[in-house]
Amino acid sequence: MNTLGPGSLTAILKVLLDIVAFILWVLLGGASLIMVFIMVAGVYRTFGIGPELPQALLNFLQLGVVLALPMAITAIVVFTFVVDRLRRVCRTLVKGDPFVPENAGHLRSIAIAIAIYQLIRYAAHGAISLAYTLFGRPVESGMNLEPHFTLNLGAWFAVIALLVLSEVFREGARLRDEQQFTI
Prior knowledge:
Blueprint: H1 9-47, H2 55-62, H3 65-94, H4 101-134, H5 153-180
Helix pairs in contact: 1-3, 3-4, 4-5
């Protein structure tokens, strides 16, 4: 079986990435809808408009969902972005032309997205810990909120590897263009 071109492993991977992208868009829509409901319920509860909220909804709002859901939405957005860029790279691989200048930009964009997500994750962990501390809320379900720094070496290695691969693709595209103009 070929690794490039129509009917290849890359074509199968592209179809799988298309399916994952669809699922991610559905998840993003659902999570965003839940976030809107939480905001409406918060406004509803704060101003006391109408009858009391159902107890099931109040129990749901007491969970850490209110603080964790924005981070989950951020993760889904970043993952959707990464899958979209991988789909674009696979599109050129299916065509049989991997060394195009756009692929270097796609790989660089993926690396930057992963790095930004990691930085947001560090900030969110600190913000959630601070919110729990400031509001005097007890830590539920044994969650550890002590300030400690955990470095995700796998993610940072992926960032470095993707940056190196983007330069390899950029140089490969330059050499291919240079070869086409050589007589």
